[in-house]
Amino acid sequence: MFEKQIEIPSPEEIVSERPVPEALAAVKSERDRLAKEVITGESDRLLVIVGPCSAHEPEPVLEYVRRLGKLGERVKDRLVLVPRVYTAKPRTRGVGYMGMFSQPDPDHEEDTLRGIRKIREMLLHCIEESGLSAADEMLYPENYAYVEDLITYVAVGARSCEDQSHRLVSSGIDLPVGFKNPMSGSIPVLINSIFAAQSPQVFKYHNYQVRTTGNPYAHAVLRGRVDNYGNDIPNYHYETVMQVLEGYARAGEALSNPALIIDANHSNSGKRFRQQIRIVGEVLENRLRDKDFRRIVKGFMIESFLEEGCQEHDVVFGKSITDPCLGWADTEALILDIAEKA
């Protein structure tokens, strides 16, 4: 049974309440261009999507992105930094804190309308205060329209990779969309997701039948897999990366822009957050040693916040309330190392 609680205005109505100022729209457009050029190979920079597991409050997120913006200026010749500002949180068992989109205050009840408005305000300030536009996970495809004018990178999670609506909506997005491998780790399923997103589609979206042209910037993300017993199995190693490259090759001209991002956390690290440093280092070494590996690996996803680790409740400013993250000092050192070896 459904109980109607709050009527949510259309994306057009919400956007009209707080449109993006022309100057900030120009900044976002430039960040979009830089990110796209990494995926297409027009740029030899690496794309680094970095930030907290989930954004639960604007203030620590804004402090984080301000620091990241300053760091981005130091490494802009080698890296394109995109702050990870994930506002919807997938839950393995379907219960728990679901993210700012539906629960703008993690200690209070859901209020989706307030969450949407709070997110838009936060993402606007991110661009304004750091010169960087954010990445977000498209957990619920219809919600994308509420933030599409504010973000530069879209992630599709492992639990959503096989979902038809995620694939279809991704086909109409004019941004890099990273499809994580499914929980099983299947490379053919991952390649099929990219194929669907890069293909023109016709489907219902909000109140319209829409036609898309396909998204040439859709690409692969390796995040590790989970076996039948619940064990985390990493897949950032050379052998799996080559399997992804072979999957692209078998598709031939049907797929554009072979590209792969390595998610250094999740099942690749077993959520042991400090292992992200070692994993990134190993991937960088393989890029130096093998031209095919270097050609397809375009960057990293890293979970990081102001303070390392995690906490159950929001007590420590800038510390994750979901998965544990690297702290700022380690993050800064890691990004500088990536820039040096890119």
What does this protein look like?
The model has no long low-confidence stretch (mean pLDDT 96). The chain has 342 residues and is an alpha/beta fold. It has ten helices and twelve strands. Helix 5 (164-170) crosses helix 6 (187-198). The protein has one domain (11-320, 333-341): TIM Barrel. The chain is globular. The strands form three sheets. Strands 2-1-12-11-8-5-4-3 form an eight-stranded parallel beta sheet. Strand 9 and strand 10 (232-233) form a beta hairpin.
Question: Descriptors for this entry?
Answer:
globular, alpha/beta, two-stranded antiparallel ribbon, eight-stranded parallel β-sheet
SSE arrangement:
Blueprint lengths: L10 H7 L4 H19 L5 E6 L6 H18 L3 E5 L28 H19 L3 E4 L13 E6 L7 H7 L6 E4 L6 H12 L3 E4 L2 E4 L6 E5 L2 E2 L5 E2 L4 H14 L8 E4 L11 H15 L1 H6 E7 L24 H14 L1
Parallel strand pairs: 1-2, 1-12, 3-4, 4-5, 5-8, 8-11, 11-12
Antiparallel strand pairs: 6-7, 9-10
